[in-house]
Structure prediction request, 645 residues.
Amino acid sequence: MPDTLLDVRNLIAYYMTPTAPVRAVDNVSFNVTEKEILGIAGESGCGKSTLAYSILRLLKPPGYIRGGEVLFKGSDLLKIEEEELRRIRWKHISYIPQSSMNALNPVMRIEEQIGDAIINHEKISKGELRKRIEDLLVSVGLSPSVAHMYPHELSGGMRQRVVIAMAMALDPELIIADEPTTALDVVVQRGILQLLRDIRSKLKASVIMITHDMAAQAQIVDRLAIMYAGKIVEIGDANDLFNDPLHPYSRALISAIPSISEKKKLKGVPGFPPDLRSPPPGCRFYPRCPHRIPGKCNVDEPRLIEVKNDRLVACHLYR
Amino acid sequence: MENENLIEVNHLTKVFASRGVMSKGQIKAVDDVSFSMPQEKPTILTLAGESGSGKTTIARLILGFIKPTSGKILYQGRDIWKMTKDEWVRYRKEVQAVFQDPYGAFNPLHKVDRVLTIPIRKFKLANSEEEATDLISEALGVVGLKTDEVLGKYPHQLSGGQRQRIMLARAFLLKPKLIVADEPVSMIDASLRASILNVMLDLKSKFSISFLYITHDLSTARYVSDNIIVMYLGSIMEMGPVDKVLVKPLHPYVKLLIDSVPVPDPERRWKNRIELPRIEITSQSLQTRGCKFYPRCSQRMEKCSKERPDLANVEEDRWVACHLYQ
Ligand SMILES: Nc1ncnc2c1ncn2[C@@H]1O[C@H](COP(=O)(O)OP(=O)(O)O)[C@@H](O)[C@H]1O
Ligand SMILES: [Mg+2]
Prediction:
């Protein structure tokens, strides 16, 4: 059995609003083992980014964590001192926020931005630092001369690679990447996905890849979790899950992906996701589900349980 | 000429002055582009390409939002910049547009009904209040919406998919011959996207509406369109039936693009690796001679850096701009 690196248990994170809280992450549990790429998929607004902030305790008001545990190598990140947390962030767990390639400081050269991340955590000589930065740029397929450039001189794809280099700078054990390929051209997307796989082999690190893009997930993840309206509805081995999705939402999501290589009739899912301030009782997919059982699914909330080897599903059809 | 095309674009060129830090001067956003869409039967033509390839500029030129630097756009044989006032009014009715962000098309302070009532009034589509209501419910029905789920609501109360369908309903009200749809599903989630693509297919088959479908997403292009044009830095690289171009591409650039589209199946992962440029020049006014794809092409020949290849007819209905096929 591979060792568990991160163990998220019953995590609940809400946003305060004048009416009712937005139940963005509602009792989410999963784990990440060493050297694994775990995908988190689901449509916009289902809570993926909120989950990422919460794991790193970066959730800002009106967001707040209501409960749960985030065990990283056994210690609960939600309980430790701020000081220790800061030490763990970057050095042990690094984070590539959504749209971060557009958040690079426009008036700082690339070498200063990568350098800052390193010297905040390590004592290192100037010469060594320069060498480290160059190596990092080369490892994401960029020319060392990019170090002297400013963000505006780089294309979106190059900036995204700089952001990945920064996340790799301190040799972390876990990298959380939120929509790392969104808004990039397809050839660049492919290059970025390739890089995320390299991270696992080069750094021997684990990766949590968050993206709504199911085809991108299919290309690189080992295991996949599917979120719907603040909850994980299914999690399991990627091959297996794409071959035989069990939850009706996973099935719908997978059959709604158009493919360039074959023309098959696509079916949309009727309706749309619920308002997370007042999600429906029972299963949150109930109003849209083609297999719903009235009197059961809209009353009892299905729990995420193992229905076959290494596959957990939250659905009353599998009882 | 008896058999006029619905739309014909001839040697269309648009040059913008660039204010870039790196490149002072001019950018040819659209560079000598020609294509047409037939009148006899409705078709969906995809205009595909990466960001900056000139897709949206072509859409804006066709819609008459901006004037070409050179070249012409003919609608049923008439140059759109030489139309009489009446012809122009008819053109604005028969050629409709749908954009990427359906939210931007709504006024957040008004109920969504307004985007449907305004065109009815402006183009005098109804003689009475009842007739207007009937038109609206017909249009909503065609795009798969129920009147009571959307009417009377504010834009923020609807999902992106519903808002985009209202925009299609609005276009439908005007009984257009062509809808220019610029990335209409790229901000819409997967489970709702399929329904919108299906609405486009319905509008084509049941109501004979043609589409110019602009997208960077080749998978949805395969799903909805009949023909495809793949652009690169303002020029057409390849053009032909979607089932041929996307299945057996000829141009090295189109091959690279198609190879990079992720297949949604973990059992069909990429086997080989690709190299991204170690450093790239972000301006596009550089390669003035020769093929625009020369710097990135894996099959380039000496000739390619010197002579720009013409878009040549290589098979019955296929065109490619590459020296390998000339
Ligand atoms: N600051 C906020 N205040 C209130 N609600 C928020 C805030 N940020 C996000 N949300 C809501 O939380 C839910 C989850 O959002 P998010 O985590 O960004 O989802 P995803 O990353 O999957 O798109 C959504 O319903 C979103 O509208
Ligand atoms: Mg997000």
Remarks:
- The CA atoms of residues 46 and 228 of chain B lie 5 Å apart.
